[in-house]
Write a structure and sequence with these properties.
- It is built from 17 helices and 19 strands.
- The strands form six sheets. It has a seven-stranded mixed beta sheet, with helices on both faces.
- α3 packs antiparallel against α11, α4 runs parallel beside α11 and α13 runs parallel beside α16.
- The longest helix is centred in the C-terminal third of the chain and has 24 residues.
- The chain is globular, with a radius of gyration of 25 Å.
- The site of D-serine has 4 residues, from loops.
- The site of D-serine (DSN) has 4 residues, from loops.
């Protein structure tokens, strides 16, 4: 019989059905299937060697903020001007995040502003383009096969791949195929002809410092805005262990989860105040603030992800501490060790080394490619990604591997541990060569041999177990699961 009692309100019975809306059960009890998957992924992260240059392990404080009540709130608009009530705390959180973002990069709030609402780096870049470049206006970014990012305007002969190349006119600049270094001279020549509205100084796979001063000169020669996409290096810039783009750029975008070690989110910094003083003494002011804020919201996004913004604020506070600088110094040192060790084993590293958190291992000189090596390393619990090398024609047939140090350095790996990591990579690459020699010419045949040939199965197992035993000794930061 239906319980209609008013003095004992209960959700236990609604229309005679069980309805246990406690909303308080831990994940393990509420959704054991998802819990098992989370544990599985946590264990994969723990027993593997994470070398994907764009990944990191966020701290417990960051993950706690990310998994907090901030997730529940809608707050379209900006602090003080929201389209929903109840945002007084959210306003404080967003303002705190903005303040910390400016402080971390030593920016004067009179000269720089920051939008912390972009959901991640790609939306941040697109917001900048829509904000400051007219439809079909011209953009120049580093080509994807040369180490640029998709959102910097990637297209092929057959297809416009990135929305940036669909809605804007994109002309890429390149690296020198011999040295692997950005060809600033050619960029300068082409920019003079193309007259871009915006030039992007930013990379996804480039192990050397960017010459922002030269790019500023090129931008000024053509009346272009200069955008730095510092997503990969924003932690290193915060720690002041590599040159800062802020000295030379008009706009700076970033993700917050790579070397910065925060949650997955994005930020856009823009200049404010006087842009230049004309000969007649008249001042020309920057007009980026309104354009960029309007492009993020209401232009492209709805409600900001307040849990992410809160967690970014936590990561920014961590990035101000001396320990973060020590971490970033160790990241660079570990990447150098990886590079030196591979070179001493006869491998080729694009540009001959690294100044930052990553290296690009060129496998073409030993007759291998990134696709095959990535698959074998994955099978032995080493995560990295295939990457094009200077001179590669197609992003689908990459000649090398991108290897990054940020994640393992967060697990307190130091140089001698990276010597060991390189030994495992080397053994994985030797196995790749053996498997390639024993299989047909296609990638499909290679994978078939890798996964199904019992001879290789045993060898893979031996190496994987060694890798996992080694990796599992290092605690995983940010543990939130019981
Ligand atoms: N996907 C990131 C990277 O791996 O570099 C960039 O967005």
């Amino acid at each position: 019989m239906e319980d209609t009692s008013m003095d004992k309100p209960s959700y236990d019975k609604i229309n005679g059905h069980d309805a246990e809306w406690t909303l308080q059960d831990p994940l393990k009890e509420d959704d054991p299937e998802m819990y098992e998957l989370l544990i599985k992924e946590r264990n994969r992260q723990k027993r593997g060697l994470e070398l994907i240059a764009s990944e990191n392990f966020a701290s417990k404080a960051v993950l706690q903020t990310l998994g907090s009540c901030l997730n529940n709130k809608y707050s379209e608009g900006y602090p003080g001007v929201r389209y929903y009530g109840g945002n007084e705390v959210i306003d404080d959180i967003e303002r705190l995040c903005q303040k910390r973002a400016l402080e971390v990069y030593d920016l004067d709030p009179e000269k720089w502003g920051v939008n912390v609402q972009p959901y991640s780096g790609s939306p941040a870049n697109f917001a900048v383009y829509t904000g400051v470049v007219e439809p079909h206006g011209r953009i120049m970014g580093l080509d994807l096969p040369d180490g640029g990012h998709l959102t910097h305007g990637f297209f092929t002969e057959k297809k416009k791949i990135s929305a940036t190349s669909i809605f804007f006119e994109s002309m890429p600049y390149k690296v020198n195929p011999e040295s692997g270094l950005i060809d600033y001279e050619k960029l300068q020549d082409n920019a003079k002809l193309f007259k871009p509205k915006l030039i992007i100084a930013g990379v996804s796979c480039y192990s050397r410092h960017i010459d922002y001063a030269t790019m500023r000169t090129i931008a000024d020669e053509n009346g272009s805005l200069l955008l730095a996409d510092m997503a990969h290096i924003s932690g290193l810039v915060a720690a002041k262990v590599i040159p800062s783009p802020f000295d030379h750029c008009d706009i700076v975008t970033t993700t917050t989860h790579k070397t910065l070690r925060g949650p997955r989110s994005g930020m856009i910094f823009y200049r404010k105040g006087v842009r230049k003083t004309l000969n007649n003494g008249k001042q020309v002011m920057y007009d980026l603030e309104e354009k960029i804020n309007g492009a993020v919201f209401p232009g492209l996004q709805g409600g900001p992800h307040n849990h992410a913004i809160g967690a970014v604020a936590v990561a920014l506070q961590q990035a101000k501490r001396p320990a973060f600088r020590t971490y970033c110094e160790q990241v660079i040192s570990n990447a150098k060790t990886m590079s030196d060790e591979l070179i001493s084993r006869g491998y080729t590293i694009a540009t001959g080394g690294t100044d930052n958190h990553l290296i690009l291992l060129d496998l073409r000189p030993i007759g291998l490619d990134g696709n095959r090596a990535e698959k074998v390393l994955e099978a032995v619990s080493i995560a990295c990604n295939k990457n094009t090398c200077p001179g590669d024609k197609s992003a689908l047939k990459p000649g090398g591997l991108r290897l990054g140090a940020p994640a393992l350095t967060s697990r307190k790996f130091i140089n001698n541990h990276f010597v060991k990591v390189v030994e495992y990579i080397h053994r994985g690459i030797q196995l790749t060569q053996e498997i390639k020699a024993a299989s047909g010419p296609t990638l499909k045949e290679f994978k078939n041999t890798l996964y199904n040939d019992p001879n290789f199965g045993d060898k893979i197992k031996v190496l994987r177990e060694e890798v996992e035993e080694f990796a599992a000794q290092f605690p995983l930061p940010g543990e939130t699961l019981p």
